[in-house]
Design goal:
This protein has 341 residues and is an alpha/beta fold. The chain is built from twelve helices and 15 strands.
Length: 341
């Protein structure tokens, strides 16, 4: 029997990929999106081309509109909350909008779920930024990268929260509301603290989505600026693997409800943002890539690598797509679609 999925931000990068997967397997989908992000119209056109004009329901709405959100999600069996203000830099210049979209918007989502007689599952896309700069964790500098000195498996869910930047505060506030509504109201909610997610249909910009942005910039000849020393390490996760985690949480909701999971590529899928990724990108492009340099940005961790063992234990999940293969897939997609950037 088909389930009713309600996806906020469903016209975005992660959302459109998930909608595609859900429609392929016959689920019913409502996309709730204000269509403000670059690429949203293209993603909707792609979905309609694949599945038809009426394959999904579209509600053009904002998560700040509690009444519309509540009414639109009444038939939902599963709410996947992806809509967000996504850039640290934007949160610094406009903290009020960041708060209203991320913190208040997430509150509106969990309230809509609490009031829903169908008692839907809620999946929330949180962020590793809730851990802040992790100044208490020792890092060491190697030849091409920074590394944790004493965390061989990466950062676990027991790492203290430190909401650095307005973005960290707003996403972290939402994170805690989603978690606490499971405790207080019995909401079947799951928090995913996501690392660097990348893949096709990601219209990355300099402030967010660095893997996609650098590939797009390299293919289209735009300026790339490296902030900091370029040795910052991130664990990268291909979007299909993230969607596998979402599916696993739904399938195992009795174990996953009320839980928080660090979700990323883990120690096996790490890249420094330029000293390692740069040469990989130059090989794919077939020529050197000139870059500009600038100082460190607020809240930029020298290292973030997710400890993903809890998700593996509870959900039977682990990444399948290696970093090199995933980057090549995204590079091929950008090159094939160069004209839309």
């Amino acid at each position: 029997m088909a389930l009713n999925y309600f996806i906020t931000g469903g016209a975005g990068f992660i959302g459109s990929n998930y909608v595609h997967r859900l429609l392929e397997r016959g689920e019913k989908v409502t996309i709730y999106d204000n269509l403000s992000r670059a690429g949203a119209a293209r993603n909707l056109a792609w979905l309609r081309e694949k599945f038809g004009q009426n394959a999904f329901r579209l509600t053009v709405g904002d998560v700040r509109d509690a009444a519309l959100l509540t009414e639109s999600s009444r038939q939902a069996d599963i709410i996947v909350h992806l809509a967000a203000q996504v850039a640290v830099t934007t949160s610094v210049t406009d903290p009020r909008s960041d708060f209203e979209i991320n913190a208040l918007g997430t509150f509106n989502v969990v309230e809509a779920a609490r009031l829903n007689e169908r008692k839907p599952i809620v999946l929330y896309a949180s962020t590793n930024k809730v851990y802040g700069g992790m100044e208490d964790v020792q890092v060491v500098e190697r030849g091409t990268r920074w590394e944790y000195e004493n965390l061989p498996f990466g950062c676990s869910e027991f790492q203290p929260l430190d909401f650095h930047s307005p973005y960290g505060c707003s996403k972290g506030g939402g994170d805690q509301y989603v978690r606490d509504y499971a405790r207080i109201y019995g909401l079947r909610s799951v928090v995913f603290r996501q690392s660097c997610i990348y893949g096709p249909r990601q219209f990355g910009v300099e402030d967010q989505g660095w893997v996609a942005w650098m590939i797009i910039a390299a293919v289209t000849g735009r300026q790339i600026t490296i902030y900091g020393d370029g040795k910052q390490i991130r664990d990268v996760l291909f979007v299909d693997d993230l969607l596998d985690a979402y599916d696993a949480a739904v399938e195992r909701i009795d174990a996953a409800a009320g839980q928080i999971y660090n979700i990323g590529g883990g120690p096996g899928n790490t890249l420094s943002i330029w000293t390692e990724f740069g040469p990989m990108l130059e090989r794919l492009l077939g020529k050197p890539i000139p870059v500009g340099r600038s100082g460190w940005r607020p809240g930029d961790q020298k290292v973030f690598v997710a400890d993903i063992r809890k998700a593996e234990r509870d959900l039977g999940w682990k990444p399948k797509v290696g970093a090199e293969e995933g980057v090549r897939r995204l590079f091929d997609w950008v090159r094939q679609n160069k004209g839309i950037f």
